[in-house]
Design a protein that fits this description.
The structure is a single chain. It is built from five helices and seven strands. The protein is α/β, with parallel strands linked by helices and 166 residues long. A five-stranded mixed beta sheet has the order 5-4-3-6-7. It has a two-stranded antiparallel sheet with strand order 1-2. The longest helix is centred in the first third of the chain and has 24 residues.
Amino acid sequence: MPLKKLPKPVRFLLWLLVFALVYFGAQQYQKRNLVSGRAPDYSAPLLRGAYFDSRDLAGKPYVLHFWASWCPVCRFEQDTIQALSRDHRVVSVAMQSGGRDKVRDYLQEQGLNFMTLLDEEGRLASRFGVRGVPTTLLINSDGEIAFREVGYITEWGLRLRMWLVD
């Protein structure tokens, strides 16, 4: 039976199904290289000069957010991460965004003050299988990666996921 002969509501539902399959398939494809299960231990220099060690957050849920200053989607999402950092632990990773001064100036210009690790060469991102930004991982109190997101995510979407992780 040709598609045009189907009733309009049935055609609409079929197109909606095709769109959903393509969308969720693309999402899964983007996540294919990301680590899953237990989050690896890591340490990296903080923007403010000290070193951060992920073992210091053992037993506490947190958001691990990879971003870059040159990424337009990251710029669009940065206020969401800023708002979330007021209520939850957020560890952001400035991936391949330049040195300490350049990242500090960028955060200052944008009015952002969330914890930021420097990943100038992308080694930390590579350890987590991050190939694109923004990428957000939500890690539960057992150190397991509970949610993995690539691309833009709304503040309420992140808050709901953090509520589920807590």
